[in-house]
Amino acid sequence: MQWNGLDYAYALLKLSSALNQSPVANRQSPEFWRHIAEGITVCAIQQQAAVNHPDGNYPDSVSLTYRYQPNDKGIIGPHGIVRNLWLLRDPHDDAWGYETVIVKTEPAIRITSDAIVERAEFRDGELEFLLRAPKGIANSQTVIACVTKPEQVFADDKPVAFRYDHRRKFVLLQLSHETEAVKVRVVGVQPTSYESLGVVWERPVWEFNIDDDPDDWTPVNDLAPFEVKGGILRTRSTGGDPYMHGPPIRVDATKFRTLVLRLRVQFPAGAQPIGQVFWVREDDPNWSESKSIRFPLPTDGQWHELRIDLTQSPEWKGTITQLRLDPGSGAGIVVELDYVRLE
After folding, report:
1. Is residue 244 domain-shared with residue 330, that is, in the same domain?
2. Distance between CA atoms of 320 and 339, rounded to whole angstroms?
3. Is the domain of 166 the same as that of 269?
4. What is the CATH number of the domain that holds 265?
5. In whole angstroms, how far apart are CA 123 and each of 76, 127, 128, 181, 292?
6. C-alpha–C-alpha distance, residues 37 and 180, integer Å
7. Helix (H, G, I), strand (E, B) or coil at 66
8. Which of 50, 253, 323, 330 is the 20 to 30 Å CA partner of 139?
9. pLDDT tens column, 14-35
10. Where are the alpha helices (DSSP H) in 152-217?
11. Rounded CA gap, 216 and 248, in Å?
12. Measuring CA to CA, which residue among 171, 116, 158 is closest to residue 140?
């Protein structure tokens, strides 16, 4: 699926709507074309980049967040998907104008939302715009990229919570829509350049020193959402097989031979205090038991630094491209990480 497929699906939705109003008999019903368009859109949703892929989809400017490589899987801009979803909900609610809005600042501020962004203006440290959601939609998500951390954000003059990514320089808003259009004011903010990190962490050190920023680590299975405060990443297992993925890296296994963790773990009765680290390589990108090492975890509820010799495994070789960390087995394990390093 590519952008042109989504454009074709959009045209089919418009055709379906036109046939509904046409007095002329047609070989195929309007619902037939609508069904085809819906299938194409669903395929695009399923082919969106998912866990541990960079933020190329959201916001949808690939160059803003991702150093794209020729052999990478495709990144589908979300505007085509959202535009079609609007028409599938209501054939009269056309979101052809749905797109990332660029505010004329230096550098430019970019606003991407699953609502339509209207009348965006920046003046004297304040960004203001309207968000218009389709009928029946109660919530929206919005990314405001290339900005400093705001002092406050208001929706219809009421203060709202927001998340700020210090490294990628964007604000993430999750708003409720009590009315069709919500007025958003972002106060005490300035345009700023995005820190060009690309997708790959060249230096495999994660210290969680910025609140609400998990350094691109992701709770993939049986883990509660990460909380990062005061230099500590905290989470809790919600099922029997908890694990997290680190961000994409590019590490020479001959130069980095030890995994270093400073952590504190609290185990409930019945949980197994055996940790495990997995990895994938450039020449072998699939997770497997053979590319892993088990190690005992401390059970006294105190802080400990663990050093795991990765050269115990003959599979620690070549170019390492990602880590996976399993903090024991069982539900109710409380995990706190001070830092994760490869040395």
Report:
1. yes
2. 19
3. no
4. 2.60.120.260
5. 32, 7, 8, 21, 53
6. 26
7. coil
8. 50
9. 888 888 888 877 788 888 998 9
10. none
11. 9
12. 116
User: Do 211 and 338 share a structural domain?
Assistant: yes
Out of 128-137, 261-270, 316-325, least confident range:
128-137
Count of other CB atoms within 10 angstroms of residue 280: 18
Domain of 25 in residue numbering reads as 1-96
Residue 177 amino acid letter: H
Bridge partners (DSSP) listed for residue 163: 172
Buried-exposed string 31-46: b where 16+ CB fall within 10 A, e elsewhere: eebbebbbebbbebee
Domain count for the chain? 3
| Last residue in a domain, options 77, 96, 115 | 96
DSSP character string of 68-99 = --TTSPP---HHHHHHHHHHHH-TT---TT--
Q: Are residues 82 and 125 in the same domain?
A: no
Residues counted in the chain: 343
How far, in Å, CA of 316 to CA of 319, rounded?
Answer: 9
Backbone φ and ψ for 9, nearest 5 degrees, come out as: -60, -40
Q: Which residue, chain included where needed, has tokens 């699926």?
A: 1
| CATH number of domain containing 192 | 2.60.40
Q: Is the pTM value of this prediction over 0.70?
A: no
Element (H, E) at 254: none
Backbone angles phi, psi at 58, to 5 degrees: -150, 95
Which residues are CB-contacts of 60 (< 8 A; sequence separation ≥ 6)?
77, 78, 79, 100, 112
| Residue position matching structure tokens 């007025």 | 183
Token couple for 164? 């700020």
Q: Say what the pLDDT of residue 76 is.
A: 65
b/e map 91-102, b = 16+ CB within 10 Å: bebebeebbbbe
Query: By the 8 A CB rule, do 149 and 213 touch?
Result: no
Place of tokens 């052809």: 96
198, 223, 257 - which closes a domain: 198
pLDDT value of residue 28: 82
pLDDT in tens, 157-205: 999 999 887 777 889 898 988 888 899 999 999 999 875 544 567 689 9
Q: Nearest to residue 295, comparing CAs of 318, 279, 272?
A: 272
